[in-house]
Amino acid sequence: MISLAVPGFSGESSGSATDGDQRLRRAAVGTWQDFYHGKRTMTLGVDGKATMRVELTGIKARLFTPRLDLDIVWSVEDGRMHRRTIGGRPADKVEFVNKRAGVVVAERILELSADKMVLLDQNGSQKYTWRRVK
Question: How much is the pTM?
Answer without folding.
Answer: 0.86
